[in-house]
Design brief:
By secondary structure, the chain is of the alpha/beta class. An 8-stranded parallel beta barrel has the order 1-2-3-4-5-6-7-8, surrounded by 6 helices. β3, α4 and β4 form a beta-alpha-beta unit. The protein starts with 11 loop residues before the first helix and ends in a 27-residue tail after the last helix. The model has no long low-confidence stretch (mean pLDDT about 90).
C-alpha cells in the first residue's frame, strides 16, 4: 500500500491569502473502512469490450503510468468467444489485474417493451427463468475459462450466484460486482446488496459526499464510482472531488469512464475504431485524476497492485435445502 497522506484543499492556500474562507473538514465524515490490505482506493478501467481494447488499455496504462487493479467489460460474457475470453484472462493474469465480465441477458435488450417506455420498466433485471438461467450459464462458462469477477445487474441473479459460490459451483474466490445501472442510492439498499452477496457495489455518480458518509456508517463493502460517468449515467465529471470521494467512500474503486461519447454496448466490429479510441482516452482520463491527487497531496493509500479481494463482508444466511 502507498503511504497515507494528508491532502490539501484545492485552491485553499491562495484563497486564504486573499481572505476567502474554506469550509472546515469534519473528521467525523471520514470512512472508517479500508480494503483488507489497508488501502483506501483502487483503480478500474471500464468498458473494455474485448482482447483488442484490452491490449490498447494495457499499452496506454504503461505509457501513462496508470496503475490498474481491475478491468471490466459491459457487453457480456455471451458477446465473447471462448478464445477471446481466454486471451483476456491470460493478459490480465500476466499483469495481476482482475478481469470482470458482465453476466447474461438483461431486460434492456429483451423483447419486453416496458424497458423502452418513459419509466424504463424493470431496467436491466433478468426477465423470467430463462434470463436468470442465461446469467447462470454465463457465470459457469466464464469462471471455467478463468474469469475471477462477474458483473451483475439483478438482485435475484446476485443471490443465485452467491449461493452457487457457497455450494462450490463457482470458485470460492469469485467476486461479484453490482452494476452501475442498478446501483443502490441509500444506506439500507447498499447493505441489502452486500448481504445478497455483492463484493463490490457501483453507486450512481450523482450521490453527494454526505450520501457516501451515510453508506459508510452501515457497510464496509467496497464501493465503485465513476469519477467521470458515461452520458447514459449522467455524464458527471468529478475529478476535483476525488480526494474527498476517497476520504468519505473508502474502500473505493475509482472508475475512469468517459462522458460526451456514444455508447458501445453491445460491442461489435462495427464499433471498433470508436471503442479503441475511447479505451485509449479512458486511460488518459485516469492519468489526469492521478495527477490531481498527487498535486493535492492525496495520492497515498492506494492498494498494492494485484489486490482484488474485498475482505470479510456480511451475508444473509442461506436456508438449508434452498
Amino acid at each position: 500500500m502507498t503511504a497515507p497522506s494528508s491532502p490539501r484543499r484545492p485552491g485553499g492556500d491562495a484563497l486564504a491569502r486573499i481572505g476567502h474562507p474554506s469550509p472546515a473538514v469534519d473528521p467525523a465524515d471520514a470512512s472508517p473502512h479500508t480494503f483488507p490490505d489497508g488501502g483506501t482506493w483502487r483503480t478500474e478501467i471500464p468498458s473494455v469490450e474485448g482482447p483488442e481494447a484490452l491490449s490498447v488499455v494495457l499499452e496506454e496504462s504503461a505509457r501513462h503510468d496508470v496503475p490498474v487493479h481491475r478491468i471490466s467489460q459491459g457487453s457480456g460474457v455471451w458477446m465473447l468467444t471462448d478464445s477471446e475470453i481466454t486471451e483476456m484472462v491470460e493478459s490480465c493474469t500476466e499483469r495481476d489485474i482482475e478481469l470482470c465480465l458482465f453476466t447474461g441477458p438483461r431486460g434492456t435488450w429483451d423483447i419486453g417493451g416496458s424497458t423502452r417506455t418513459g419509466s424504463g420498466g424493470a431496467g436491466l433485471r433478468a426477465r423470467g427463468h430463462d434470463a436468470l438461467a442465461g446469467c447462470v450459464e454465463d457465470a459457469l462458462r466464464a469462471t471455467e475459462l478463468g474469469v475471477t469477477c462477474l458483473l451483475v445487474a439483478d438482485e435475484g441473479v446476485l443471490w443465485t450466484l452467491h449461493r452457487m459460490r457457497l455450494a462450490q459451483l463457482l470458485p470460492a474466490g469469485t467476486t461479484l460486482k453490482l452494476s452501475a445501472l442498478s446501483g443502490p442510492v441509500n444506506p439500507a439498499s447498499y447493505a441489502v446488496y452486500e448481504q445478497l452477496g455483492a463484493d463490490s457495489l457501483n453507486v450512481p455518480s450523482d450521490l453527494t459526499l454526505d450520501h457516501l458518509s451515510e453508506i459508510r456508517r452501515v457497510s464496509a463493502a467496497p464501493m465503485d464510482m465513476y469519477v467521470e460517468a458515461p452520458d447514459d449515467l449522467g455524464g458527471y465529471v468529478r475529478m476535483y472531488e476525488v480526494a474527498e470521494l476517497i476520504r468519505r467512500g473508502a474502500p473505493l474503486y475509482l472508475k475512469f469512464g468517459l462522458s460526451n461519447a456514444p455508447g458501445i454496448y453491445p460491442y461489435g466490429a462495427q464499433l471498433r475504431d470508436h471503442t479503441l479510441a475511447t479505451a485509449r482516452e479512458r486511460v488518459r482520463r485516469g492519468r489526469l485524476v492521478l495527477d490531481l491527487l498527487a498535486r493535492h497531496g492525496a495520492d497515498g493509500g492506494m492498494s498494492p497492485l494485484g489486490s482484488r479481494l474485498p475482505g470479510d463482508l456480511r451475508r444473509f444466511p442461506v436456508p438449508e435445502g434452498n
